């Protein structure tokens, strides 16, 4: 069954010393476009997240917002540059021998640039990646369910519209044989008015009608159009991304309908062609929502 491209998922996991939460949104897009927003310093996790999305979806813009926090308090390593500190103290004492300067205080010392260094603590990236994967997969599960449910509703509506298209094609099929007969009657009436007192052979008259019938024939277009309808019906029920395929089929259907409109010299068929193009446009708009 065809799937939609819209959905939303939210999840949070707290384990292994990490609290990771994510909001994931999926909207329509011609291709698969993945946007990942991570806290500063955690960009490496994009390598974990991106493949998870690519495995699940073929189309749509996927926007991922991730929040990461460490749980609990951890001891941090603090380094003091003792050589720098001793040098400052010695120099200060030398200045005190010459000038009336106060003694160095704790606040003075800790304002010395580069005296205190707090190295970045190590991150267990494997453990964090495992938590992030769990969160993202839960979000993607929710989105998949939403896309599937909406896809079922879209499919029902699309098949209804496709039924309307098929009905209009059948109406055109019924009218097609009448086009030549109507032309025959009109042509005969006009010729009788124009050729009073002259003669026109039956062979010449039938030849003119045959030329018109060949030029106005839409048999091939109707056959191809019905073939496209059948292919559309089969494709939309496949359990694979079919949005772009269905969009292409609709383009081909529009091509055949335009040809029918240009060839069939008949008011009623022209009216049905307008309705058919309108129905195909509504069909195309719905197909744009499918993955």
From the structure above, extract its key features.
291 residues, alpha+beta, Ribosomal Protein S5, domain 2, 3 domains, two-stranded antiparallel ribbon, 8 helices, 6 strands, rod-shaped
Question: Could you characterize what this model shows?
Answer:
There is one protein chain. With 291 residues, the chain is α+β, with helices and mostly antiparallel strands. It folds into 3 domains: 7-73 and 124-148, Imidazole glycerol phosphate dehydratase, domain 1 (Ribosomal Protein S5, domain 2, 2-Layer Sandwich); 79-117, no CATH class; 149-287. It contains 8 helices and 6 strands. The strands form 2 sheets. It has a 4-stranded mixed beta sheet with strand order 1-2-4-3, with helices on one face. The longest helix is centred in the middle third of the chain and has 70 residues, at 125-194. The N and C termini lie close together (11 Å).
Q: How would you concisely characterize the structure shown here?
A:
By secondary structure, this protein is of the alpha+beta class. The chain has helices spanning 46-56, 82-98, 106-109, 125-194, 202-216, 219-236, 243-263, 267-287; strands spanning 7-15, 18-27, 32-37, 60-70, 79-80, 116-117.
- Beta-strand percentage range: 5-15%
Describe the oligomeric state of these chains in a short phrase. single chain
What's the number of helices?
8
Number of strands: 6
What is the string of helix and strand elements?
A: EEEHEEHHEHHHHH
List segments where confidence is low: pLDDT < 50 over at least 5 consecutive residues.
Answer: none
Trace the largest sheet across and list its strands.
Answer: 1-2-4-3
Percent in helix: 55-70%
Give me the secondary-structure category: alpha+beta
- What is the residue-mean pLDDT, rounded to a whole number? 85
Distance between the termini: 11 Å
Roughly how many Å is the radius of gyration?
38 Å
């Amino acid at each position: 069954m065809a799937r939609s491209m819209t959905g939303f998922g939210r999840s949070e996991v707290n384990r292994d010393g990490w609290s990771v939460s994510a909001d994931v949104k999926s909207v329509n897009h011609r291709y698969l476009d993945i946007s990942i927003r991570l806290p500063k310093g955690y960009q490496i996790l994009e390598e974990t997240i991106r493949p998870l999305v690519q495995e699940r979806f073929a189309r749509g813009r996927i926007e991922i917002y991730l929040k990461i926090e460490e749980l609990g308090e951890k001891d941090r390593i603090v380094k003091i540059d003792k050589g720098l500190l001793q040098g400052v103290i010695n120099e200060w004492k030398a200045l005190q021998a010459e000038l009336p300067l106060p003694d160095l205080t704790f606040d003075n010392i800790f304002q010395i640039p580069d005296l205190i260094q707090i190295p970045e603590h190590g991150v267990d990236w494997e453990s964090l990646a495992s938590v992030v994967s769990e969160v993202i997969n839960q979000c993607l599960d929710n989105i998949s369910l939403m896309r599937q449910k909406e896809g079922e509703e879209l499919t029902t509506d699309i098949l209804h519209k496709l039924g309307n298209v098929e009905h209009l094609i059948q109406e055109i099929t019924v009218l097609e044989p009448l086009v030549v007969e109507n032309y025959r009657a009109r042509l005969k009436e006009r010729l009788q008015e124009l050729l009073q007192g002259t003669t026109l052979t039956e062979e010449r008259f039938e030849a003119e009608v045959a030329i018109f019938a060949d030029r106005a024939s839409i048999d091939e277009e109707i056959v191809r159009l019905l073939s496209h309808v059948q292919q559309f019906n089969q494709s939309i029920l496949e359990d694979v991304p079919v949005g772009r395929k269905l969009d292409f089929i609709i383009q081909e259907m529009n091509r055949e309908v335009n040809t029918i409109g240009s060839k069939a010299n008949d008011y009623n068929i022209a009216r049905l062609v307008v309705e058919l193009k309108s129905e195909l446009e509504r069909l195309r708009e719905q197909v744009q929502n499918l993955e």
